[in-house]
């Protein structure tokens, strides 16, 4: 087992990173091939009811979810992202807050809760329990929860800079797209940039790997995004279904990130992450 502060300081690791890369999240559109399917399934069950967009970031999902309902609230715990989101969507209700404590929202006041981009994985296991508990509290009868989460049965859990797969469809990139000048040693700008990114990934992975935790159905590990600068939660599909059941949700659909169709009943997945659509009991 890791030392006592291995999970308690995830906020100290992850929140400063979000604050430092806000511009990378000033984008619009779908995040991966599975997301449209998951949100369409969720929207069909919750259309016109109040929507709560957790981990809204810079507002990638704001316009998408406001098509589901004009009664929309976006929440994020990073002040820099909240300010950027407000600038990009000045007529939307965007708030600084924490998904683990939605005190400002009444019981049963929301019809759809969305937590995209694996945002729920940025908090530790106890924090994740609070997120799901709060989502259940604010959802009304038959309310819908839709979120994505990293698959512990996929290739990212335990990955290191030498074997991590590329997330080719993710909005943004592990390598900045802007061209850079060549280095003095004769390498091209792209080669120089790749070397620098690779070195940062190795440094970050070495810094965080000692905090890896494997609890069977769930675990914590360095995540390949942002040059392994994040420590995130992973969970198996079976573990996620049990977790939802424990918090009063019935799982209605699972959509892998790498295909635009839900899993058949009993079908598994080795996708890097998956989207879950669940109904509040």
- Give the biggest sheet: 7 strands, mixed
Strand order of the largest sheet: 3-2-1-4-5-10-9
Number of helices: 8
Helix content: 25-40%
What can you tell me about this protein's structure?
The model is unreliable at 172-194 (pLDDT under 50). Strand 4 (110-115), helix 5 (125-138) and strand 5 (139-150) form a beta-alpha-beta unit. The chain contains 8 helices and 10 strands. The protein has a domain at 10-151 and 231-280: Vaccinia Virus protein VP39 (Rossmann fold), CATH 3.40.50. Helix content is 31%, strand content 22%. The strands form 2 sheets. The chain has a 7-stranded mixed sheet, sandwiched between helices. Strands 6-7-8 form a 3-stranded antiparallel sheet. The protein has helices spanning 10-20, 35-46, 62-66, 79-88, 125-138, 189-208, 225-228, 237-246; strands at residues 51-54, 72-76, 93-96, 110-115, 139-150, 213-214, 218-223, 230-235, 249-256, 273-280. It is globular. With 281 residues, the protein is an alpha/beta fold.
Compact summary:
The protein is α/β, with parallel strands linked by helices and 281 residues long. 31% of the residues lie in helices and 22% in strands.
Defining traits:
281 residues; alpha/beta; Rossmann fold; seven-stranded mixed β-sheet
What does the secondary structure layout of this molecule look like, with pairings?
Blueprint (H helix, E strand, L loop, with lengths): L9 H11 L14 H12 L4 E4 L7 H5 L5 E5 L2 H10 L4 E4 L13 E6 L9 H14 E12 L38 H20 L4 E2 L3 E6 L1 H4 L1 E6 L1 H10 L2 E8 L16 E8 L1
Parallel strand pairs: 1-2, 1-4, 2-3, 4-5
Antiparallel strand pairs: 5-10, 6-7, 7-8, 9-10
């Amino acid at each position: 087992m890791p030392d006592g502060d291995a999970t308690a300081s995830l906020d100290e690791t992850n929140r400063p990173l979000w604050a430092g890369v806000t511009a990378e999240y000033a984008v619009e559109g779908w995040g991966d091939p599975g997301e449209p399917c998951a949100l369409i399934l969720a929207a069909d069950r919750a259309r016109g009811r109040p929507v709560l967009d957790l981990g809204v970031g810079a507002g990638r999902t704001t316009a998408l979810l406001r098509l589901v309902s004009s009664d929309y609230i976006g929440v994020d715990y990073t002040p820099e992202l909240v300010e950027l989101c407000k600038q990009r969507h000045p007529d939307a209700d965007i708030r600084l807050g924490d998904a683990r404590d939605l005190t400002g929202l009444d019981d049963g006041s929301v019809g759809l809760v969305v937590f995209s981009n694996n945002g729920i994985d940025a908090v530790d296991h106890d924090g994740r329990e609070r997120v799901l508990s709060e989502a259940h509290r604010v959802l009304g009868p038959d309310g819908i929860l839709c979120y994505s989460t990293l698959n512990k049965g996929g290739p990212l859990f335990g990955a290191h800079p030498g074997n991590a797969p590329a997330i080719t469809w993710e909005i943004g990139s592990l390598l900045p797209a802007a061209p850079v000048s060549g280095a003095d040693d004769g390498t091209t700008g792209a080669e120089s940039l790749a070397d620098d990114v690779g070195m940062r990934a190795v440094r970050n992975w070495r810094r965080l790997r000692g905090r890896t935790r494997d609890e069977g159905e769930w675990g914590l590990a360095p995540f390949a995004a942002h040059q392994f600068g994040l420590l995130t939660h992973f969970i198996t599909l079976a573990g996620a279904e049990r977790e939802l059941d424990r918090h009063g949700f019935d799982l209605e659909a699972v959509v892998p990130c790498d295909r635009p169709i839900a899993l058949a009943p009993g079908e598994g997945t080795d996708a890097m992450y998956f989207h879950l659509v669940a109904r509040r009991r």
